[in-house]
Design goal:
Helices cover 7% and strands 26% of the residues. The chain has 321 residues and is mainly beta. The longest helix is centred in the middle third of the chain and has 6 residues. It is globular.
Amino acid sequence: MVAISAPRFGACFYQAQTQQPVCALMPSNCPEGTSYMGPREILTLKISCKADDVSVGRCTSSLDDNRCAVDSDSCSIQNKFNRKSDACTLFGDHAEGSSASFYQTMFPSCRDKISNQKRCVLSQNDCTQSEQRSQPMELPWADKCFCHHVSTGLCYDKSTLAAEDSLCAMTSKECDTDQEFMTALELMKMPNPPRKCRLCKEGVGGKGPRIVEMSGCYETTNNNFQSCASESTDCSAFQFFRSTTQMNEIGDVSCQSPSMVVGRCTSSLEDICTNSAESCKFQHKFEKESSCIITDDKQNGKPTYYPVRSNAVDCARVCIS
């Protein structure tokens, strides 16, 4: 049985480093005055964006029950769409008072005019000419589309088309240079797909402090987990490295511990905790240190710093969402 996977999302970075990066569905969703970085790029900055981190809008008409939506086409009255709602994410509505009966974000569908087969889509624009479009509120409750029903595309290695060489993606911009992009519809029509890609995993959502998932070091002789790691160089000569994705694929829970040890720039010009030598002005002054953890410096309570472009930012901006 092919496991269901979900894509990671990129983020929009403000030119002024004083504002926190914003997770984004696609580059076109970035606010004016920001630049987009893809999901792989931001992982190097220890930023992780999932469906419940990506803000969407709201249909403010009573006909739509004031529900969250991705675009105006998902609203019964399009001019009642509010493009930005801080309480709305791809996963659901986090507005105060909605937790008792949590409202998941609903999506439109496309139904084949001949076979009558339905598929859930991000936007009605994803429907082909041979399909009938349906807005979220037009669907009966038992037939509603939520994020765990919405298919996404796939980046894959054309020579292998294997699960280990592929990842779920929203656009071709998230693929490596040696990868091809397959649309959600093409992936759905495959007889034996390497992955089943959905916008989110069922039940995986809910706001709250969240430490970015880390990778791990495993003992070479017995494959046993040894410690959390941010990169392969954190593992010793007698250990091998598994990424977060690889850990999840073998059933291991990826590291989310705030106690993961990082290092320190020991120069008198910059006595700070950080994740790697490249973050230090004088790289040879970087040392692993147990008092430096992924969130802060246990010696003085100052935040651990990470690079964003040429400037460092603290972990409060990039580690917790």
